[in-house]
Amino acid sequence: MSEVLTPPRVAAQDAAPIIELRGVAKRFADRLDVAAKLARRLGVRVRQDVVHAVDGVDLAIRRGEVVGLVGESGCGKSTLGRMVAGIMPPSDGAVLWRGRDLRSLSGAEAREAKLRTQMIFQDPYASLNPRLRVQDIVGEAPRVHGLVGRGEVEGYVDGQLRRAGLDPALKRRYPHQFSGGQRQRIGIARALAVQPDFLVCDEAVAALDVSIQAQILNLFMKLRRELDLTYLFISHDLGVVEHLSDRVVIMYLGRVVEEASAEAVFRRPNHPYTRALLAEVPRIEVRKRAFAGVKGEIPSPLNPPGGCHFHPRCPHAFARCRLERPVLREVAPGHRSACHLNEAT
Length: 345
Ligand SMILES: Nc1ncnc2c1ncn2[C@@H]1O[C@H](COP(=O)(O)OP(=O)(O)OP(=O)(O)O)[C@@H](O)[C@H]1O
Prior knowledge:
- By secondary structure, the protein is an alpha/beta fold.
- The chain has one domain (about 15-30, about 50-345): P-loop containing nucleotide triphosphate hydrolases (Rossmann fold), CATH 3.40.50.300.
- It is built from 14 helices and twelve strands.
- Helix 8 (about 210-225) links the parallel strand 7 (about 200) and strand 8 (about 230-235).
- The longest helix is centred in the middle third of the chain and has 18 residues, at about 210-225.
- About 40% of the residues are buried.
- Bound molecules: adenosine-5'-triphosphate.
- Adenosine-5'-triphosphate binds next to strand 2 and helix 2.
- The site of adenosine-5'-triphosphate (ATP) has 15 residues, from strand 2 and helix 2.
- Belongs to the ABC transporter superfamily.
- Pfam families: ABC_tran (PF00005), oligo_HPY (PF08352).
């Protein structure tokens, strides 16, 4: 990846949380395969297991912060992101938007919360209506929500496209006429058009070529400076969040296992899982020698291991790890880790 411009770190510690999760959990009934669906339709009782996608997460994101959320595929990152964005309700716990429980907001307040928080997805093509021209994709929501008058939409859309690095002369084209990187810029322009202050980016660069990834990451950081945005940046790749995050949160099988400033996570990782993930960041040669990569497959969230979920893959696991869930504890100021090793010494 070519150079990603590192943003100036914002002193976000004192700012009020823009969003807060308190003891948030999400359970799903497991998806049925075709045979099970058919059997159910024929009146046969089909056992449906429960997926523990997110399991008791506390997280506060402060105004102006960029928080990187990292973990392997299936660990619950997207589900957490959707709950943060208010588009999926938790099974347990509460999501607070500017200090207020999302469930307690009036209709108008809930609409405002939804507009202020926008999600950017991995596959911009799937999230762009192929039958609409770019000008309508970007202009529709601000017009519907009364953010811009009918006569001003065109100039407004031009401004959003320019801000996202696209030539407004292309606005009459359809999504399929653009490259992957340009389509992601259209998705970003569409999100910006409703004037959000918080972006949840879910694997927003994962589908792009490496050189394009850096351009889009730089765009996110430029927008951060220009618009004072707050970000939750979800990625399976620690290397992607390294340059842009103030704080990094590591998730494993539905739980947060470590949370600290980006600097602390990269220089002084505490949790064995974080260390194993760091070993897989190709550019970090020294760490590659210091820690072994993560071994084996992530267990199924249908039947997560007891105690510390990571214990079957952890080279340091001892008896207590199999029995007791470790809680997140401060191991240094602002640095929390959920590992029994921190108490064993
Ligand atoms: N609507 C759903 N119904 C049933 N199970 C679901 C649903 N959504 C997610 N899951 C399951 O919840 C778990 C967490 O999924 P999630 O997509 O949040 O993980 P992730 O870390 O974002 O992974 P990926 O990067 O692969 O999307 C997975 O086992 C997934 O199969």
